[in-house]
Design brief:
The chain has 406 residues and is of the alpha+beta class. It is built from eleven helices and 19 strands.
Length: 406
């Protein structure tokens, strides 16, 4: 509920009620910090968001004592990830040997995940969630960020705080208003998402990647398939000009589903375009402010690792910042410690993603040259043990965080 006052005082205000923002809000509230999370949308119901919940995130839920209740929510499980290559299905990531309780990726609509986190956080009296609150500006006092200016249906709302956290995604308003410098890597690309019905005789993989020239991702959402078609940067505009029939045929050429299924995509209104870029902030923080998750480092959707990294950022931030915030002794060194802790896994993951794309960099301009699957898939096909290594990197990341604050 929105306060009747147009000015609020809190210890920590978090912009963005996504995985990073709500997990950090829950952990800080649990540790006794007064925290307010603001979200520009009215609800969590948006399609084609990152719906993968990795083994490391499931471990966090286990450490919070919430895993049994959480896994009662509708979801599908992938103990491995598969790819189609030369007509054969190969395992590209195997989670069966991970040193965690739940060795699978859970596919769950992100609104269910976020609603669950929000409900758990709202059980704490020192947690506040304000929806339909859009960040307009940051408050700045002699070089220190001291709060947010928000636009709400009731008018302008000012929230003054000891710390502002930007967890508002790859198009972060907080990082823009705070004038943080962003570095971009590699060429942006595009993924077209669509829903197709699930029928008897369909592939049995929970998540698969297919297609010799263009990537095609198939995610089992229980009663339908969520499909992602990977295209080059500017191609979607060209495809639209050629019409829906041409688009259907391009997907049919790489999809393992029967051709007639694409008739369910009646027009481009049935698709959702995601522009993929890999970037990160040169510095994640300023005095009084820090960014985490996609706001600090946008990822490619390869392996669905963006949500995983965002959750890990939130856990690390809570571990480092909870006591200084609670005891009113927060310093720049604390903010720098969060960036230092999460910088290596971020850089390493982005480097890996760029390497996965690099086999195509020289011939991106000519589709006819792009014959085989990426080099990393060919390598895993030759050395199956690499699937366990890939499972570790995708499932746990380069540095797994554990809940330490209470």
């Amino acid at each position: 509920m929105m306060s009747e006052h147009h000015e609020i005082q809190t210890t920590c205000v978090i912009a963005g009620a996504g995985p990073a923002g709500l997990m950090l809000g829950l952990l800080l509230a649990r540790a006794g910090v007064d925290v307010t999370v603001v979200e520009k949308h009215a609800d969590f119901l948006r399609d084609f968001r990152g719906d993968t919940i990795h083994p490391s995130t499931l471990e966090v839920m286990h450490e919070l004592g919430l895993i049994d209740e959480f896994l009662r929510l509708p979801h599908t499980r992938a103990p491995k990830l598969s790819a189609e290559m030369g007509g054969e299905t190969i395992t590209i990531a195997d989670f069966s040997r991970l040193p965690v309780k739940n060795r699978f990726i859970a596919f769950m609509p992100q609104w269910d995940f976020l609603s669950f986190l929000a409900a758990k956080a709202q059980a704490f009296p020192n947690f506040r969630l304000i929806m339909r609150a859009k960040v307009v500006d940051v408050l700045e006092d002699r070089g220190t960020i001291s709060g947010l200016v928000l636009e709400t249906p009731e008018g302008e709302l000012i929230i003054r705080s000891t710390l502002v956290v930007g967890a508002d995604g790859r198009n972060s308003a907080v990082r823009e208003k705070a004038r943080l410098d962003v570095e971009s890597f590699g060429m942006p690309s595009e993924v077209v998402w669509m829903k197709l019905s699930k029928q008897p005789g369909d592939p049995r993989e929970v998540m698969g990647h297919a297609g010799p020239r263009q990537g095609f991702v198939l995610i089992d959402r229980g009663d339908y398939w969520q499909c992602g078609y990977v295209i080059r940067r500017t191609t979607f505009a060209e495809i639209r000009e050629r019409g829906i029939e041409a688009f259907r045929q391009m997907v049919i050429d790489v999809s393992p589903l029967p051709a007639e299924r694409m008739q369910e995509v009646r027009s481009f209104e049935d698709t959702n375009l995601l522009t993929v870029r890999i970037d990160r902030l040169k510095q994640w923080w300023r005095t009084g402010l820090i960014c985490i998750g996609d706001a600090a480092h946008a990822m490619s959707p390869i392996g669905g690792v963006g949500v995983n990294l965002a959750i890990q950022d939130a856990v690390a931030a809570a571990n480092i910042l909870a006591a200084p915030l609670r005891d009113k002794r927060l310093t720049e060194a604390d903010l720098a410690a969060v960036e230092k802790r999460r910088s290596f896994p971020t850089r390493a993951t982005q480097k890996l993603q760029l390497m996965m794309r690099s086999s195509r960099r020289t011939d991106e301009g000519d589709d006819r040259k792009r014959r085989g699957p990426p080099a990393f898939i060919r390598g895993i096909a030759r050395f199956p043990l690499l699937a366990h290594l890939a499972g570790r990197l995708i499932g746990l990341g380069f540095r797994m965080e554990h809940v330490r604050v209470k």
